[in-house]
Structure formats: C-alpha cells, structure tokens
Design a protein that fits this description.
heterodimer, A: mainly alpha, 32 helices, globular, B: about 325 residues, mainly beta, four-stranded antiparallel sheet, WD40_rpt (chain B), GNB1L protein (chain B)
Amino acid sequence: VSFIPGGLDCSISFVSHVLGKVCIHGRQKEILGVLVPCLTDLTKSDCIWQRICWRLVECVPDRWMEAVVIGFVQKAPRADILSRLLGNLVVKNKKAQFVVTQKMLLLQYGHTTAVLQNLLGHLSQDSLRRTLLLRVLQELLETWSSSSAVKHSPVEQQLYISKAILICLSHLKESEIESCRQELLTSMMEGVKCHLDSSLPQLRRLGMVVAESISLKINSEGPVLKFEYEEDDTTRELKSLVEQTPSFCVVPSLPDDDRSEEADATLSESDEKSGPAAPLMPDEESDAELDSDDDLIPYDMSEDKELKIKAPVYIRDCIEVLTGSRSEDVDKWEATVKALESLVRKNPAATREVSVELAKILLHLEEKTCIEGFLELRQRAQVAVLTTDPIPVAKYLTSQFYSLNYSLRQRMDILDVLVLAAQELSCPKFHGKTKHSGAQKPCIQLLPGSDSSKGWRRIVDERIKSKTRRFHMGQSHAELASCPNEFYSVAGYFFFPLIQHFDRPLTTFDLLGEDHLVLGRLVHTLAILMYLSVNTVAVTAMGKALLEFVWVLRFHTDSYVRQGILSCISSLLLSVPAEWILAEMTEELLETQSWLGDVMEKDPDGDCRKLALQNLLLMENIKKKLEAVPS
Amino acid sequence: MALPPPDPQFVLRGTSAAVHTLHFSCGGPEPDIPLLFSGSENGFIHVWNLKTHRVDTALDGHGRKSVYCVETMGGKDRLLSQGRDQRICLWDLAEGRTSVMDSVFTEHVGFCRCSLLKVAQGRWLMAMAARSLEEVQILELPSKTSVCTLKPEVGAKLGMPMCLKLWQLSCGSQPVLLAGYEDGSVVLWNVSMGKALSQLICHQEPVMSLDFDSEKAKGISGSSEKVLSIWSLNEQQNLQVYKTHELVNAGISDITIRPDKKILATAGWDHRIRIFGWKKLKPLAVLDYHTATIHCVSFSDHSSPRERLLAAGSKDQRISVWSIYAQT
C-alpha cells in the first residue's frame, strides 16, 4: 500500500472503506501489522501525514469503526503513537467514543495490560480527551464499588477493571484529583466493603490493593490506608501500574513518588535515636595502671548461661499454668504454650485423662503476651489433643461449633483443627503437608484463605489423574503408604455432628444467612472429611447425608460455597464405592449430572466451571469402569 | 583450672516474704553481736543474729507495707527504715527497745531508696524522692529540716528518680548527690546550691541502682537492660562514660561496691549474684543459689577483713550469706 505525498486534495475515503472492510472481516492483524508501523514512521514529524492518517480513520464507516478502532488500539506500541494515529477521533466520532470508553473497558475484559495502558494513556494526552478520562474513571469506580458486580462478575473481569482504575489514577493530575476527591473517597469506601466481604481471597486482595492506591492518591500528606496481605505477582503488578510516570505524559511527576521519599526520610530519622554518649575516655588508663592488686582469681563461670524458663513437664501442670490467673508468671505461660504440643504427643495416656478439658482451654486460649507464631502453636496443640483422644474431643468440638457465643474465627478454628487431625489420623504422610500459616500480624486483620482446601485440591487432582490413568493402563497406584488408618473408626464422629444442625440459625450464628464464609469453610471441611473416609464402614451413610446437604445449597450465591459443594461431590464420587453409587443413587446422580452440566456452562466463576467438568469426568469414569467389568 | 564458685556460708530463712533490703552492722567491738537487718515485703524488719543465724527481733512499723530500705545511723542502736507506706521511720533499738522515735512522711509512692550521709557528729543528710514526680528532697536528720529540693529543669523529662547516692569527697567538703533517673540518665547535683552539675545518659532503660567510689571518682550503674555502665567524674565535675559491660541476662536490681573498693557485687533478675573486680570490671564469679530474682546485695562492715561477708536477699524469701575474696 503506498500513499501519494503532497498537499493535494486527495480523497482517502476509498482507502478508509477498504481498511474498514478488511478489519471487519477479521483481518485486523495482518493489515494493521503493515499499516501501523508504516504510519508511525510517516507521522513522526510530518503534520500532513498526521492529518492524512486522521482523515483515514475518520472516514471509516460507522459499522466498521469498532473493528478498526480496536485493531488500532491493540496494535499501537505506545499511547503517544496511538494519539498520533487516531487524533481526536474518540471525541469526534460517537461510535469510536463508545468503543473506547465503554466497550473495551466495561464490556470486554480480555485485553492485555499494555492495551489498557495505550488506551488510557491516549485519553489522557489531550485536554479534549481528558474529560473522557475522568468520565471513564467514574464509571469504572461505579462498577468496582457495586456489590452485585463484585459478587457475580468473574474474577478476571474484576482484575481487568482494577487495572484500568489504577492506570487511570496514575494519569490524573493534582487538580483533577482535587475536584473528584470526594467521589473517589466514597467509591473507595463502598468498594472496599464489597471486596472484603467476598469469600474469595483473590477478590479481597484486589480490593485491598486498589483501595490502598486510591487512598495514597487522595491523601498524599495524611495517614494512608495500609492493609496486610501477602504480596504476589498480581499485587506487585497492580501496584506498579499506579506508580508509573509515563515520560511523554503531560502529567507532572506523581505525588506518590515524593511521598515515598518522604516516608524513607522519616524512617531513617527515627532510627537515629540519640544513643548513649560515646565513650570519651578510651582504655589507655587500664594499661597505665599496674595490676598491683589484681590477684583476685576468678572462679569458674562456665555455668553462666542465658536464663531459660523451664516449661512444666506434666500435662496437669500445663493446665494449671494456662488457666491460672497469676499474671506475674507470663514467662512460664509462654514456655508452657511452646512446649504443650510435644508434651501432649509424648504423654498420650495422661492426655486422655484430661483431653476434653485441655481442648476447652485451648479453644478459649487468648494471646497473653506477644509470642511468635502463637496461633500456629495453639492450633498444633489442639490437633495433637484431638489425635490423641479423637472421640470425646471430636464430640466436644463439633458440639461447640454450633453453640452460642463463639466468634466466627473460633468456629473456623474448630473446622481447621478437625481437618488437620483427620488428615493426620488417616495417614502419617499427610502430617505437615498442609501447614496453615496461621500467624497473623496486627494492622487490619483479615481471615486467611483456605489453604487447606488448596492443598487438598492438589491431592484430589492427583487422585483423579491416577484414576483416569488407572482405567486406561490398568495399573493401581498405591499412593498411600500402608499403615493402620486410625481415622476409620472415628470418621463418623467428625462428620455427622457437623452436618446436623446447619439449617438451624442461632442468635449469633446463621450459616445460611450472613455467615456464608463459615458455610463455605464448613462445606470444604466436609469435602475433605468425606475424601478421607474412603473405605470406612460409614462411608455410604456419609455419602447419602452429604448429597442431601449439597442438594439444598447448590444454588448458593457465594462462589466460594459453590466451589465447596462441587468439591464435596468430587470427594463423594471418589470415596463412595462405585457400585453403591450406581445402585442406590441413580436418580440423584442423574439430577446431579444435569445440574453439573448447567454449572459447567453458565456459572460465572471459572473455578466452579472447572470443578463441574472434573465431576462430570469422574462420573463418566465410574460408569465406564462399571461397564468394563465383565458381569 | 578455675574452681567452681563457692557455696553460701549459710542461708537465713524465716522472713516468709520476699526480701527487699539488707544492711549489716558488724563493726562494733566485741562482745557486740554482728547483726544483719533485713526488710521484707510483708512490712517486717528482721534483726538477724549472725552468730546464731536466727532472728533476734522483728520490727513492725510500716503497717504491713513492704520495707525497701534499711540503714543504720551510727551504730546498731539507730535504724532508719523506708517503706511503701510512704514513711521513713527512725527507730531506737538501744537496750532492747523497739520503738519508732520519729518518722518522716515522704508522700513518695515509688521505690526509690533514700541515701544517708553523715556530715557531722549526730547530724545526717538524707536524700529521698519527694512527692512531686521528678524531685529529690534533701533533709537534715534528726531535725527533719529541709535543706533543699533538687528539681530538674522544665522539659528535662528525666522521669522518677530511681536511685540516689549522697557523698562528699572528704569530711567537711560540699555534699554532692548522684541520682539515677527513669530515662536512663545519671545526674550529679550540688546540694548546697541546689543545681545540677552534670548529666550523663548511661542507659536506654531506667537506672535501677548505682554506686560510687569517691576515691577513684568512678561509679557504676545497672539497669533493666543487659548493660552495666561505668562512668567517671573528672575535675570539672563532669560525668563521662568510662566503660560498659555486657551481661548474659538482662536486669540488675542492686549494685554495691565493697568498702575496700576491691570488688563489687550485682544482684540480678536472673537469680544470680555476680562479682566483679572494681579496678577493671573483670568478672570474677557468678553465684548461683537463689531461685527467684535477687532484690539486694550488701557487704558487711566487719573490721577484720577475714570475717567479711556478702549477703543477698531474694524474692524466694531467703537471704544467702557468702564469704568470698575475704583473704585479700
């Protein structure tokens, strides 16, 4: 394609038509792959070429405008190049404006971060277009802070919107921030609330990062919002989006750069506290004095070591220390907490005498002093007690799960302890596989993600893989080392009490209502317990109960709960013997199958869809396996 | 091959409460019995007979509130005790009496031990923490007249005075006060003029105890941290840090230098008594007997060097008495 240079009145509309038609047929990449670099070079310094280019895109008919614009935005290497190529197209042409400000940002979410940066950078570079930028930011914030959007839209879309918001923020000038500070603040508060309410840890983290960035922008001098969360690639990427200072941008250097410098300065100042005066008189004097009466012979001081408080050696002593009201003996209390788990494991007989009492104390134990890893220590002690004396302690814990006046954190602790103990009892190999990072620091406390379910999912995935392989290759994978499974005899005590009262709301605890986070955890816990109960006598009864439980909840609005339910079905299919499933539960299975098909196609959450697909595969495998057995 | 540390020569039991303060009175000529005065948390002052190792008398004068300082005033017949009932009592113990002659109401609610200095026959100066937070009051005894009040300047933020030591270079010279404060600094005060001569930050934590050797113009202070700080006084009456010594475990309740200035003893929160050489602060011994934090250490004032003793009172309600480095 070659162009005629010169300031002639040539009509480019024909070229625009060609371009539009090619793009609408899906050949954007090819044609723009040639056209864009060409135009980039030509328009670098030549105004005439720029105007030609603008005319070119303006003349594209509306019905093909979308394809062309999207193609340009995707192909242009940088925002300023995009500006050169498109000019003020988005201001002049209604369709282009719609595409750029609404369709690409709110309706689609598959574009890369670079494309977003191009787009928003382009909007920020001209004063005419900046109004569009502000409008775009407002609409993005509205979506970000709407609770229904947070609940129902897929995680990927929310990530996309968050990125767009952060890039917009990075382009805003001080004066613009001033003018919309109030709106930013309101949206931020609402949005943070919706995000933190969610049961999915990725969404919570998204909310935290965006809220931090917004607060940094609007409150550059005062105290800034700071959350505690684990940094990962996504959060780092998001944060880097805000701090960019595009060199070609009109925007002056961002205030948050200065702020970070200020913060560093104050930090280093506070480190230099006025210490004690440096010794002015060196030790020369000691050499001058003769050791005339230094005939004092030192004694042996090798025993002089750091003082360690000894922890009690007997379990009952531990109980005394932990329940004692003597606040002076905090050293002893600390030592007891640290030593408790090993003491319990070493003295099973003594523990069994006081197991329920110990479980009660541990459930209510609060951090008296600042020990490192207190939550983990307490949890390990609880697991140790539960594994040493499973039946009474499980009875106690499951009854407390549904009692009044416990905090959500305590109820979830109960679930975590039950799961960890079940895993440990089923096989020593599992012990330590799923370590809860329970240690939480101050700042804004949030509940940790369900690490156990992730680890469990890995195990189930492996198991599923092994099952499918088994069908084809006929090998049996001996995954678990052979050892007596202590969980078998007590599985029922763990499982059935938990499933019993879930639909009975208490004054402080309503599983089916507000406390859907705990419901999600409960469902995941039941899935794990079901999985671990493979080959137990009670597994068929468990399966039936679980299927009924699951059936009630299958349309729950919280995607975390739905994921849990699908995991329950996976465990069910894996643990309950196939013959029994097909014999006793044919109708339910068919209904489940159709429901799973529905979930697989229509559920907004990607993880749910994956799990539904896995379940359908499992069901297929079971059927095939049973058919393959010669009758 | 270093010898293992010695065991206590004997242990005094029977206070039934934590021991907070000790004072020997063994300087009298024969047939005077060497005595040890101890103040306990239950408000009693026990007078121990060091020959029989038993309590001769128990004095109850502080309304069962903890006694945290006892001192004799020129012999064993006059005793001064300070308790948590905000009173300083002067006792007359001559001829078997056990009566409180006089008392001073200090209105001090802290734990700062008072310091006595004999300035003339029958006349004493006493430094004590007063009611107001940062002030130290100097009284003359037995007249109980106030000599002066030592107030730090406004905004100094020294905190409470934690420990005091009144001394004078020689009889008749100006009395000076060394005070250790809550913020970790030691201040040298001129008593007659009532103003501070020098201030030195010795510790990051409150100064728990200090002692001073007026001959060498060197002092030592201990705090709740792991460091002992040794400082000196130069001709211009300025305090300077001389040396620091790091300990194994944090926390020192009491420091005392033996009257012959050869060794010093520290009472530790880690239940151990440490002995150092005073000259170069060489660690000499770690005496490990008690099972709870040691509140006080005291050297005896025996006229014969070989009989010298060291006593330590602890929260475990026992007083251990040691004979260590008595030959030198």
